[in-house]
Automatic annotation (TrEMBL):
The chain crosses the membrane at residues 118-134. It comes from the Bacteria. Keywords: Membrane, Transmembrane, Transmembrane helix. The keyword Transmembrane applies. This is CRISPR type III-B/RAMP module-associated protein Cmr5. The keyword Transmembrane helix applies.
Length: 157
């Protein structure tokens, strides 16, 4: 197989991944909303950017193990139990998130068997939806406490 054929095969595989992802986007978004739903929100000491970092990490990771290692690292750093080790429900946030990663990995592999790139693509979207949800929860929390920002950011005219 020459270079041109490999390029075409790579482009076809990427197109097929994107097509299969379209069928999972709604489920990924629903999972993110449920994960940070009424019964479980992000820990108070965790900012939107910490979750957003998972998107960047997943875009450059070569395996799910890298993402889980990052979460383990963050849990190890959280000596105050305010973010990654903070209990949400009956588990630390980081452990619950690793369970969610495992579930999404299974979901992706059902759709595209043995395609690790597809797993990472699904996780990228999931973490993006999770970050959006976390940002909304920050807004909703500030609205309840009356601590909405007085600056120009976020204001509509």
């Amino acid at each position: 197989m020459n270079a041109a054929e490999r390029t075409v095969d790579g482009l076809n595989a990427e197109r097929d991944r994107r097509k299969d992802l379209e069928g999972l986007k709604e489920e990924l978004a629903q999972r993110a909303a449920k994960f940070l739903g009424d019964g479980r929100s992000k820990p108070g000491g965790m900012g939107y950017s910490q979750i957003r970092n998972l998107v960047s990490l997943t875009q450059t990771a070569s395996s799910v193990l890298e993402i889980e290692a990052f979460i383990d690292y963050q849990m190890g750093r959280d000596n105050d139990y305010k973010s990654w080790r903070c209990s949400v429900g009956d588990r630390p946030f980081g452990e619950a998130l690793k369970d969610e990663i495992e579930a999404i990995e299974e979901l992706a592999l059902k759709k595209r068997k043995d395609d690790r790139k597809f797993v990472l693509l699904c996780l990228t979207y999931y973490f993006g939806y999770l970050a959006w949800r976390a940002k909304y929860l920050e807004y909703a929390g500030s609205k309840k406490t009356g601590k909405e920002g007085s600056g120009r950011r976020g204001r509509r005219r």
